């Protein structure tokens, strides 16, 4: 790519999002207060594990990288970075959070009377998988993406909605709840992850195999400039455009708009396959381990029953 370092002209606030960093620090402080000082008020609480600390901090760092660093700015300029951001945010960070947040805390939140029924319905595997993939496909329709990227409020709301939908989608796979609710089996989890990949494929395929650029906000200078107000103050943009020869997103990359679009689709598909391979291995390993434990428990119960029968008959000898 060419002139990537030139994004520095958009200024410190656009590149490093200090307010977003402050928000993530605030979330991190609240998290540690909740799982340490305040946890005694939560039923089923336990001390925080070291791996939960590491994974939560890692999740916050990744969140800042994809949504607060120059990666976020580049995602509004180059479509490849947009798809990289999507893959890490919804297919990596969300699953990590299920291991970073103690299960008792999640159980406490989702068992609140005003949340329990709605959450139970929305984490139904059929609904959850269709909900996220439907939103993801709708979001990447050219008319929808171009419209959302020219409204900061609508774009933020839809991004938040996608994040919530991703949490709902991954809950049936990665939750470690102790609540009395029906869980899908290990084999069903394997099929569920496979189906997520299947449902994501049409959007990636459409982006990869399209014969022309689909998104005006990544090709048309006027639409692109309007979309850049999502992360760059209007005054800064006006100053840059009046003092430089930037004519659109192509200034920052040596790829054509079509090549950039196709590369973005390939990035999403490849990262999806990598993440899903790790998930399938994890689910399969845990499934076989739990099956082994169940077999051992069954054998132990049979042995204990046999010993009791033998002790009973020994009384009459």
From TrEMBL:
Keyword field: Cell membrane, Membrane, Transmembrane, Transmembrane helix
UniProt superkingdom: Bacteria
InterPro entries xrefs: Caa3-assmbl_CtaG, Caa3_assmbl_CtaG-rel
Subcellular location: Cell membrane
Membrane topology according to the record: Multi-pass membrane protein
Entry keyword annotation includes Membrane: yes
Gene Ontology terms: cellular component: plasma membrane
One Pfam family per UniProt: Caa3_CtaG
Transmembrane segments: 12-33, 53-71, 83-106, 118-140, 152-171, 191-209, 266-285
NCBIfam families (UniProt xref): caa3_CtaG (TIGR02737)
Protein name: Cytochrome c oxidase assembly factor CtaG
